[in-house]
Amino acid sequence: MLDLQSIREAIQPINAQVVEEARQRQLQLTKPAGSLGRLEEIALQLAGITGQVKPPRLQKAVVVMAADHGVTAEGVSAYPAEVTPQMVLNFLAGGAAINALSKQAQAEVVVVDIGVASELSDQRLISRKIRWGTANMARGAAMTHEEALQAIAVGYEIVTRLAESGTNVVATGEMGIGNTTAASALTAALLGRDVAEVTGRGTGINDQQLAQKIRIIEQALATNQPDRSDPLDVLAKVGGLEIAGLVGVILGAAERKMAVVIDGFISGAAALVAVTYCPTSRDYLFAGHISVERGHRLIVEALALEPLLDLHLRLGEGTGAVLAFHLLDAALATHNGMSTFGEAGVSEKEG
Ligand SMILES: Cc1cc2ncn([C@H]3O[C@H](COP(=O)(O)O)[C@@H](O)[C@H]3O)c2cc1C
Ligand SMILES: O=C(O)c1cccnc1
Fold first, then answer.
1. Ligand 1 lined by 202 (C-beta under 6 Å)
2. Cα 65 from Cα 137, distance rounded (Å)
3. Residue 297 in contact with residue 314, Cβ under 8 Å?
4. Does the C-beta of 173 come closer than 6 Å to ligand 1?
């Protein structure tokens, strides 16, 4: 069984000394100080994460965790649950948005069955099914504490293996019809917010379905009484297997001093669980984008993250995070590749 407490204790803050040295380097580059704005901040954070003033070239991967949700029986999504396994096959065939964007960003796509409610077998799929979908959270706990921990262990092991083969930045991705319901329930519980404030239309439900989704989440919280001070209890009772897997990816990456780019609302809910459990892990996170899904804004505010992109995305799969990889590459291209005033013979600021 995964020893989560020792992982939490092993996660170190990023290297403040190296951040300072990287800041000094930025001041020497041939541009007005601060003029590359957030690209400079990204470079500094990557320096602190990697412990190198000039961080190495990014080797990128997106981990797409797929799982089903028992709560779909309550009519909370615009699409049927069978879309989850169908999209897994689409990921493997290379036909989804995450495939197209990852190809363009030169990121490896790692697809994981952590709890899809049907038989899936394919050599390219990492088959680590914990159970056939969660139970219906409106009637009881989505999963046991042990299952949540097993799912966290899967994410932790996968990111550890990626690190060992040279990946140094990972994006969080997910697929699971019904998972905006789980993400809203987690957000309401962990941030102590009203369900209506953190619940949106997901794949595109109408007003009547949205009212039903809010009622169901309220019922799930009333039935399960998740303990806000215990993020793992909240995760098990009203979370999802793919969300738990991503918690493991985030904690494992932070322990290994790897950067993590968080995608939208569902990934954000996983980050909220991870950072509530281990506040230091936040140092390793970038918010790839701000999702249209209401509730995501509250998550990024609570985590004090500033999303890199605002493209009105509401897809998930890791798409917004992989798009943000281009900005991390750009930050390092300038930080590592530009000449200093001295090297280029350019005059520095007067006075
Ligand atoms: C074809 C298709 C591809 C997707 N890729 C990601 N999602 C996204 O939509 C789902 C969450 O929305 P809800 O809670 O409303 O079901 C997740 O699977 C998420 O990854 C998709 C959804 C669909 C239909
Ligand atoms: O922001 C997300 O991650 C999201 C939003 C809607 C549907 N699926 C995912």
1. yes
2. 20
3. no
4. no
ipTM of the complex: 0.99
pLDDT for 1 beyond 90: no
How many angstroms separate the CA atoms of 325 and 171, rounded?
Answer: 8
Structural domains for the chain? 4-55+335-344 (1.10.1610.10), 60-328 (3.40.50.10210)
Write the pLDDT tens digit of every residue in 180-234: 999 999 999 999 999 999 999 999 999 999 999 999 999 999 999 999 999 999 9
Q: Is the pTM of this model over 0.95?
A: yes
Which residues are CB-neighbours of 219 under 8 A, at least 6 positions away?
138
Rg for the chain (alpha carbons), in Å? Answer: 20
Decide if 106 contacts 154 (C-beta within 8 A): no
Dmax (CA) for the chain in angstroms is: 70
Distance from chain centroid for Cα 127: 20
317 catalytic residue (yes or no): yes
Residue 37 Cα to ligand 1 midpoint, Å, equals 34
CA distance 137 to 158: 27
Catalytic choice (301, 317, 343, 348): 317
Ligand 1, atom 10, residue with closest C-alpha: 177
Contact yes or no for 266/244 (Cβ under 8 A): no
User: Is the CB of 174 within 6 Å of ligand 1?
Assistant: yes
